[in-house]
Amino acid sequence: MGCQKVCSETAGGAKTDRRELRLCIASLAAGDVLVVVRLDRLARSTRDLLNVLAEVTERHAAFRSLSDAWADTTTPHGRLMLTVLGGLAEFQRELIKTRTGEGRARTQARGVKFGRKSVLAVDQRAYVAKLRAEGESVRHIARIMGVSKATISRIAPVS
């Protein structure tokens, strides 16, 4: 098996935005095969690998790893293995999402607040609501409280 074009990346580490790889993928035509020596030279994570493979597939090209025989989209077996890998990656993302959501719910149940801190204290918010109920304008309240009109509108919407 011979390669017509050889691309070599000098960027190392965990960088996923690699110029040579982008140019190499952009040069793929329908029917081409992107060949790598080892998967770890192409992708830094399962997600990164699946993203690269999606780009290759969009160009109607194939993929083959010389040292990882199972990673070969030119064969039905290779496509099956990469599909299973994609399914496992999706399953892992769902597990992480579920665990993160459960952790967030437990934390909120303990009374921990998420997001930005309020610009007005609880007593100031009550004062804003009282002024709105008495008919004061949003603009006037915002000016005396030193906050935006949007902040006042969120605290005490116009009824």
UniProtKB/TrEMBL annotation:
<dbReference type="GO" id="GO:0003677">
    <property type="term" value="F:DNA binding"/>
</dbReference>
<feature type="domain" description="Resolvase/invertase-type recombinase catalytic">
    <location>
        <begin position="1"/>
        <end position="111"/>
    </location>
</feature>
<dbReference type="InterPro" id="IPR006119">
    <property type="entry name" value="Resolv_N"/>
</dbReference>
<keyword id="KW-0238">DNA-binding</keyword>
<dbReference type="InterPro" id="IPR036162">
    <property type="entry name" value="Resolvase-like_N_sf"/>
</dbReference>
<keyword id="KW-0229">DNA integration</keyword>
<dbReference type="InterPro" id="IPR006118">
    <property type="entry name" value="Recombinase_CS"/>
</dbReference>
<dbReference type="GO" id="GO:0015074">
    <property type="term" value="P:DNA integration"/>
</dbReference>
<dbReference type="Pfam" id="PF00239">
    <property type="entry name" value="Resolvase"/>
</dbReference>
<dbReference type="GO" id="GO:0000150">
    <property type="term" value="F:DNA strand exchange activity"/>
</dbReference>
<keyword id="KW-0233">DNA recombination</keyword>
<dbReference type="InterPro" id="IPR050639">
    <property type="entry name" value="SSR_resolvase"/>
</dbReference>
<dbReference type="Pfam" id="PF13936">
    <property type="entry name" value="HTH_38"/>
</dbReference>
<dbReference type="InterPro" id="IPR009057">
    <property type="entry name" value="Homeodomain-like_sf"/>
</dbReference>
<protein>
    <submittedName>
        <fullName>Resolvase domain</fullName>
    </submittedName>
</protein>
<dbReference type="InterPro" id="IPR025246">
    <property type="entry name" value="IS30-like_HTH"/>
</dbReference>
<comment type="similarity">
    <text>Belongs to the site-specific recombinase resolvase family.</text>
</comment>
